[in-house]
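hiii so um. not sure if this is the right channel but i have a protein structure encoded as tokens and i wanna go backwards to a sequence. like what aa goes where. can anyone help
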């Protein structure tokens, strides 16, 4: 299996259709390295959405994120979870000054058709953000039709 080479490596047709990382994924799979080489450029946090009879439960994996860095919004049934982090590390030792800066932001949006804007609860615990969103009461909009 180590002798396999991705087919037509120089061909760039797939990149025009949004599959640029597909080639990189194949190259990583067929490499001889045991350590996977991934690019985190397109990675984001993972979310799970569960629908119960009376509410939605949204869970987002956010390890190392503080609640001050999270912005939650519900607008017209669209729940947006955004994270903005600004990390700065400054150390001074003798003549050496070490400074690192890193800014990152990630966002996910999910559509919840009959989400209620009131009564939403969110809790961040051990890197897991859990959001409970109640559903709107569905009114019976059906009408009985009499036959003549």
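sure thing!! here u go:
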């Amino acid at each position: 299996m180590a002798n396999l080479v991705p087919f037509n490596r120089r061909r760039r047709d797939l990149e025009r259709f949004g599959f640029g990382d597909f080639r990189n994924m194949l190259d990583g799979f067929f490499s001889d390295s045991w350590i996977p080489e991934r690019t985190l450029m397109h990675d984001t946090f993972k979310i799970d959405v569960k629908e119960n009879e009376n509410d939605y439960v949204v869970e987002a994996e956010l390890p190392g994120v503080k609640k001050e860095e999270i912005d939650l919004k519900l607008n017209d049934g669209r729940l947006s979870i955004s994270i903005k982090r600004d990390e700065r590390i400054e150390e001074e030792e003798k003549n050496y000054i070490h400074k690192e800066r890193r800014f990152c932001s990630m966002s996910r949006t999910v559509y919840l058709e009959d989400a209620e804007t009131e009564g939403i609860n969110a809790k961040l615990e051990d890197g897991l953000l859990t959001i409970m969103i109640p559903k709107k009461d569905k009114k019976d909009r059906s009408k009985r039709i009499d036959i003549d």
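oh and The domain at 44-134 is CATH 2.60.40.790 (Immunoglobulin-like).
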